[in-house]
Design goal:
11 strands; alpha/beta; about 40% helix
């Protein structure tokens, strides 16, 4: 890749000041890169004209007005389940293939206000229901670390955003994270992925999957860039009643005194199916932190074993509720079946949704039937509270950060991955990540080293609510010690 497209925000801004680059030339480089790597299938829509217009505005601020913004001229990509005014937002589904919103998601509008330039909308599993970015109507997204012949998945459901960042097409990208959908592809593609505290970043304009767990996520090649993007998009929003009402104070990622930090290693996260390489990386980072004078100790989160089942039930119940709006009447796909209203509903939803979406709707409605409500939904809610209490107890006992794997292995082969049912795919890929969404705490995936297959291996850091500054500071320290390599593509 062109070396300039692997630079950090700080380095790019220095290039702007030194006139080695301008915002317009940088945007052109990134658009060129996106077209050169279209075989990865990271993008659903490229927004050439919009990016170039935004770059021209940015250039005026840099060289004429001398009033630069935090993300001035920085290229971004947005997952295609965030609404963007006058730009198609498809959720990678036939149901919304021709849907063009009339408003911007808060996350997108705040990035543009911070000076960023939109390269395009990225691929995902249909309606973000997946862990591999393989169930899109636009086809699967390939992992840039191994994309020839027996190619690897990118992870999901924000695989397009992770690949766009890893391949040097943009500096940062936005994904959504319901059970690990930002951290999972970040881990498999060798970039940094952050799921902020629930309510810290507005969900307005994010087409919902599971309202009680959805969080806009951030992907970038380093921790500093993640923190810059978080500072640009976080804070209260009048359009989203679930955002934290307290004013957001910009985070400062500083060198942290690790001797004051207590790291917890949850013993239940060592599970069946976890590769020995992942276990070795987990131990390697624990040893590294211990060498830096951290207190590293084993802790227990006893309800971890049931968390994936609880997550699955609650996910499907909320999916059934959220998907009810797609009836073929007001917007979205509408078939020509007009024999009856029921026939129109059935045919529109049958043609508009794939098997994964339909199966989750059926399962969710089953769990919500009167005869099943207490047996499944209410019981899952009670277990969710117990899972949350596990985390609270650990953090109340003085643990600052939990250290776990992000995924159970490096990126699986596409052929192996699609041979499994979507339910089993998610059960494996989301095992370590989904508890943070059920509890609402921040979590970050950080690449550490390459596997014997020459693929990224990553670890996950989790902290209590609103501990992003500490989480990012510790991650930056680890990042500086491990020196994860930059992807080199032909």
């Amino acid at each position: 890749m062109n070396k300039l497209t692997s630079y950090s925000v700080k380095e790019i801004h220095k290039c702007f000041r030194d006139k080695i680059l301008t915002p317009t030339s940088f945007v052109d480089l990134c658009l060129q890169r996106a077209k050169q790597t279209n075989f990865l299938n990271a993008f659903v829509t490229l927004t050439d004209e919009i990016a170039e217009d935004q770059a021209v505005d940015s250039e005026k601020r840099v060289y004429i007005n001398k009033k630069t913004r935090p993300l001035e001229g920085i290229t971004i990509a947005i997952k295609d389940n965030f609404c963007t005014k006058n730009i198609p937002t498809t959720c990678a589904s036939n149901m919304l293939r021709n849907f063009t919103p009339t408003y911007d998601a808060t996350v997108y509008s705040r990035l543009i206000d911070a000076g960023a330039c939109l390269i395009g909308k990225t691929n995902l599993d249909e309606f973000a229901m997946g862990a591999g970015t393989v169930d899109s109507i636009f086809g699967p997204t390939r992992n840039p670390w191994q994309y020839d012949n027996d190619w690897r998945i990118s992870g999901g459901s924000s695989g397009g955003s992770a690949v766009a960042v890893a391949s040097g097409t943009c500096v940062a990208a936005i994904g959504s994270d319901t059970g690990g959908s930002t951290r999972n592809p970040a881990a498999l593609c060798g970039v940094v992925g952050l799921k902020p505290t629930y309510g810290l970043v507005s969900r307005y304009g994010l087409i919902p999957l599971v309202n009680s767990m959805d969080v806009p996520g951030i992907l970038a090649r380093n921790v500093d860039d993640v923190s810059l993007v978080l500072n640009a998009i976080a804070g209260p929003d009048v359009f989203d009643s679930t955002t934290i009402k307290k004013d957001f104070k910009s985070l400062v990622v500083n060198d942290v005194d690790l001797s004051r930090i207590r790291i917890g290693i949850p013993k239940e996260y060592r599970c069946e199916g976890m590769s020995e390489e992942v276990v070795d990386v987990w131990k390697e980072v624990a040893d590294l932190l211990e060498n830096e004078k951290c207190s590293v100790e084993s802790v227990s989160l006893p309800h971890t074993s049931v968390s994936i089942a609880v997550y699955s039930i609650l996910n499907q119940c909320e999916v059934a509720s959220n998907m009810a709006r797609y009836d073929g009447l007001e917007y979205g796909l509408r078939t020509s079946e007009e024999y009856s209203t029921e026939e129109l509903y059935a045919s529109s939803r049958s043609e508009g949704f794939n098997n994964v979406v339909r199966s989750r709707i059926f399962a969710g409605n089953y769990f919500l039937l009167t005869r099943n409500y207490e047996k499944y939904f209410l019981k899952a809610l009670k277990l969710r509270r117990l899972i949350s209490d596990d985390f609270k107890k650990v953090f109340n006992d003085g643990i600052d950060i939990l250290l776990t794997p992000s995924t159970l292995s490096d990126a699986p082969l596409y052929t192996d991955f699609v041979s499994k049912h979507n339910r089993d795919q998610c059960a494996l890929q989301d095992y370590c990540t989904q508890p943070a969404n059920m509890v609402g705490i921040p979590a970050l995936s950080l690449p550490i080293r390459l596997s014997k297959n020459n693929l990224p291996l990553s670890i996950q850091l989790m902290g209590p609510n609103l501990s992003e500054e500490l989480l990012l500071s510790v991650a930056k320290k680890i990042e500086s010690l491990v020196q994860f390599p930059t992807l080199k593509m032909d």
